[in-house]
Amino acid sequence: MKKLIIPVLAIALILAACGKEAVKPQTVSITLDSNPTTGFSWQVSQSEELFSVETEYIEDKHEEGMVGVGGKETITLTPVKAGKTEVTLTYARPWEGGEQADQIVYVFNIDKNLQVETVDSYSMGVNETLSTPEPEIK
Fold it and tell me: How much is the pTM?
């Protein structure tokens, strides 16, 4: 009888696992105006290291030969573990003692399935017209 229980339990566990669909982690994308020709770029810091971070800069369309053209910087955050974190985006010259212009702060909750919820967001800095873009969660 004992020999029969173990295989039956193993089959039950396998069937239970097969019935559960794996949940893909959500990603968060934030696109901001940027102009690295000025020495400024968006720096990302986290109160708790819950996201992996990737950035991509795309220069605006412009006439050939133009210099100093700005563009858009997209920051993509992919959760690696659950928790709550504050993500601060700072537009600054990254070298030591570099000038800092603006900051945008987002607070995110990440659940055990790595699904993301925006809890709060705000901006501060020298640019009084700086808006806090809504993060795209998918």
Answer: 0.79
